[in-house]
């Protein structure tokens, strides 16, 4: 085989691997973005609950509504094989996600359940945020305990 043909063949065979590597990085980046959106809205609620941010009923309800909307998103496609913390440096997703996909989905459904009703629950005063935030935080923790790499 001519050297040029060998190089062309090697490059052609490497392209799917390079594309897959780029795709997995995109999925991890998308996951990080998704989790950041949850975190920003949870942070706003936590700030109001702690009194670090002035209570604003409309803003609290909006943050809770954003969380509800995010929990309606099907995150499973963002968790593709080869994107665990053992596969990629920037991933915090433990391999247990792919070992226990039904439980992982159930934990995310728990967040969806905890978010339901939160936009109304946070209305009526700062004291109402705490109980809703505890439900949301508990659902986040349940998933993170089993499926997120410790910092």
UniProtKB/TrEMBL annotation:
Q: By its UniProt entry, which InterPro entries does this protein fall under? A: Cyt_c/b562, Cyt_c_II, Cyt_c_prime, Cyt_c_prime_subgr
Signal sequence coordinates: 1-21
Sorted alphabetically, the keyword list is: Electron transport, Heme, Iron, Metal-binding, Signal, Transport
Pfam families with a match to the protein in the record? Cytochrom_C_2 (PF01322)
Indicate yes or no for the key word Amino-acid biosynthesis.
Answer: no
Q: In terms of domain of life, where is this protein from?
A: Bacteria
Asked if the record carries the keyword tRNA processing, the reply is no
Please report the name of this protein according to its UniProt entry: C-type cytochrome
Q: Which organism is it from?
A: Paracoccus fontiphilus
